[in-house]
Structure formats: C-alpha cells, structure tokens
Request: fold
Amino acid sequence: MIRVGVPSKGRLMQDCFDWFGSRGVVMRRAGSDREYSGVIEGVAGAVPVLLSAGEIPRELAAGRIHLGVTGSDLVREQLGEDEVAEVARLGFGQADLVIAVPNVWIDVETVDDLDAAAAAFRKAHGHRLRIATKYHRLVRDFLQAQGVADYQLVDSQGATEGTVLNGTAEAIADITSSGETLRANHLRILSDGLIHQSEAVLWASRVAEWSAEDRLVYAGLAAKLGVAGAPF
Amino acid sequence: MTPKAAIRAEGERLMAGFVAAGAVPVEADILQPAGTLLDLYGEDIRARAYVTDDPVRGEMMLRPDFTVPVVQAHMAHGAEPARYAYLGEVFRKQARGSGRASEYLQVGYEVFDRTSPEAADAEVFALFRDLLSGLDLRPVTGDIGILMAAVRGLETTERRKAALLRHVWRPVRFKALLDRFAGRAPVPAGRLALLERLKAGSPAQLIEEAGSFVGLRGPEEIAARAEALVADAGTPPIKATEAALLYDLLSLEAPAAHALSHLRGIAPMLPAIAPAVDRFAARLEALAAKGVDVSTLAFEASHGRTALEYYDGFVFSFLKDGMPPVASGGRYDALTAVLGAGAFIPAVGGVIRPGLVARLKGAVA
Reply:
C-alpha cells in the first residue's frame, strides 16, 4: 500500500486535492471534515495520509510515507538528495525565501553591502549582526557560498518579521509571497537576496520500502498524473 | 586489535613523539562553550560542529578542535616558552554521502615561543615530517603572512585594505572585492542605483524619508557607511601593475626555493612584502638546517586560505590522494591576541589524524 502524505488543512490541502483531482485522482477527507483520514478514488493500493505540511519532510525521511506533498523550502532545509526525489512541481504554494533588512538602511542594497555592514556592526556593538530565521541550513549555505562574515543566525519559528522591531535581530531571512508583511514591518528585500524560490512539490521517499506491488501502483498513479516514472 | 584500539595505539605513538620533542601533555574538555568558538569562527562552525544545549552552561559544542582550549589554557596560566601535546577525539559534522568520519582522534603539538618564530615553524614541520616518514605523503606549505603583507602594502584606502584583509580566508569574496577595487569587475547594478540615491540627499534626510526607524543599527552607523560608500566610489582603482602583482601572488605555486627567488623579484615593486619575504627566507634556512630539501618542497601562496580562519603565517599540510589531510598546521599569532585578552604570543602548531596514519600503515581498513 502506497501512503501519500498530503497537507491536512487550508489552502494548501485544497490546492493539492485540486491538482490530483484535475488529473483524475480524486482525493477527499473521509467522514467529517474534522477527521484526519482520507480516501483516494480511482487508484487501488494508495491511501492518503493527512499531515501537517511541516511534518511531511520528516515522514518522507523516515520512510513512513512513500509520497508526500509539501513546500520545496521545507524539504531543502531538512533533507538531502539521497532521501527524497522530486516527482513533480505542482505550480502552487509559491513563495520566496529572501533576506530582508530595515528599510532605513539606506546604505544596504545587496548581499555585499550586508557583509560590509555586518563588519562595522560587530565592531560597534561587540556582537555579530543577527539574522532571524527558521531556515538555518538554506540561509547559512547561501551566505557561506557568498563569503559573508560577521553574522549569526538566531532561531525564529514564527512572526520573524517582528524580530527587528522587537530588537532580537538586525535582519531576517524568511518566506514571503507578496512582501506585504515585510513592508508593514519596515523591512526591504535585498536586491540579490533571493535564497530559494519555493513551491509545492510532490516528493517520493527514497527511504520508504517500495514493494513490487507498490511499484506497480506507483506506475499506474504516475501515468495518470503524467509525472516521471520510478524515482526510487 | 580492534580498529579503534589500533588507531589509539598509533595516536599514542605520535603523542610519545611529541613528548620526546619536549611537549607537556595537556587535556581539554570535550564540551566547549559555544560562544567563544562562534565568536572566532562565525556561523560556519555551527554547520561543522555539534552544538548542544546545557540547562546551566548554555550553548555548548562538542570539541571541534584543540587549538582554542589549548591557547586559552596557555594564555591563562602558561609559562614561556611552552610546548604542548594532546591526544583526543574531535567532532565534525560531515556532508551527506562524504563517507568522512564525524568523530576521530587528533594528536597535536603546539609551540608558544617568542624567540625565533621561523625556527619554531621549522621545528614543527620537521617533527611532523619525522613522525610521518615512510608514509609517502606529499607536504605542501604556504605563507598567509606574505599575502596579508601584500594587501597592507597596496596603494589604496585603509577601508579597502581592511575589507580585503577581512576576507583573506574567503577566497571567493576576496577575489570579488579585489576585482572590483582593481576595476576589473564592473560595479554591480544594485550598487550604482544605491549611489545615485545616496547622492540625492544627506544620509539623515534619506533615513528620515525611509520611514519608521527599526533595529539596533543606529542612524549614525548607517550614515557613516553611506558616506564611506560615496567616498569609495570616488576612489581610483588599484593600479593595474600593483593588482597584477597581487593576482600573480595569489596563484603562485612553485618549489619553495624557486618561490623565494620569485618573491625577491617582485619585492622591489611591492616593497611592503619585503619583511614577510625575509621571514620566508629565514624559515627556508631553518627548514634546510633541519634537513628539508627546500628546492623540492611545494609552496602554494594560497595554501590554507580555506581552512578554519585563524592561520596568519606559515601553513603546511601532509597530503595523500583520496584522503582528507593526514596532518596540517600553521602559525596563528593573531588568535593568541584574540583569546589572550590583550596578551599576545607567537604560536605555531599542527595536528595529525592517527586514524589515517593507521590506515596508511595497513593497521586498519
């Protein structure tokens, strides 16, 4: 039995159901809409598993689900290429992971400026310039590749845009789609501060056990969805 | 013997070699306060070291190297001159699929001695060579001090020199800055737009217009950098001849004796490197006195620049294809000043990985 992890609520769940549905794979929640179980019509041998989108990467890595739909930001942050394969980009849930600084930093427009500002900041304040984020790996890899120094990442699991106003960070790296929350918090995106363009992706676990029967089910499902063959 | 026991036995043999050379054995805690290491190495170390939380002591790291605790201990209560040796596990996160060990023994030797830095450099190198003899390793040396002296000697603003010096250990950013300061790379589009805006008014006025002030970075800091940017835009590029010498230096790879004559050749055009070149010459003499053939010893001016950021003089590695460096080390005078709270002592040292030595000897698979 193939277990397909899908987001359990909200816009992401609806978009996900629509994407599968428009390809003849009808997913829906079983029973009341408070019950976290679902059914897939038209594909024998596959069952949806309703999960928080944030938990889907972990479940893929543990092999407890065979397929899963979640944002590429979360997967790239948490998993390696040997754990999951990208099956299809779904064209929704788009958002950018960006670096933003206070709009009043009239001297900072690029990552290069941020690096120079960080050097001066550390001298003046005695600690590194703090960047609040929950995407530690993606942000660190991005800044390291560009040779930025004298910064530190501080963890922020929510309301990250408020950290500068609240004095717990000097800059942030967060997901944004329209940029409105950033502007409302007096922040501005660096012109070359795009770290990752995220969207909803259907992933296949390389860790899950794929029996001969599962592979057959996958082949049928992939044909219906019009996506690539065996990613395992 | 199990592999672990064989590796430890190799480590103890090397340790005995260091002790025989006059080192005092020292220990260091496995749990190190993360703050000091983060302060020194920056976020990069967080990607490489295991960070954990202690309810009382705060953020701690599993010892990623011995240098920092050994230097701290020496600066706190060491007598001079001093030679230390240590043997123990270090912990480094490795990239997925790299197959590299994340926990391994390191055996090291550190010399704190003011009398003759070049002799100390040669002492460490020759000791490592002796202890690793018969393993058919390829020694490579370098000297970050020459590069730093060349940057300090550039005919340009102090601000530009400081920017280059700060990134000596990040070759990508260093090259991007040098290209821009030398006029070889165009000013990025974002920077041009920024300069246009900055010319439109005083920094104070522009900050005012930018809306609500948020964050710890104050208006005077922002204004200072804005003014510096405008001033820098009016700074002429580093002279082409001078820049060419620096590019040449960055890529200099030659047998040490040949590298020395090459450096002697360019020193008249880059007089600031003369003292560093003299030190290089003195080191080669000291190495030759220890029986090192400097006419074949590999020298690479950029060697050690991608190591963790603290070497600022002589650097060396003993390499074998298909393996991480079997041994590496160098001079880290500036680190002792940073950790010594005002005090300073020239220091040089290095580490060997007994696990790799045991593998080369066929003692472990």
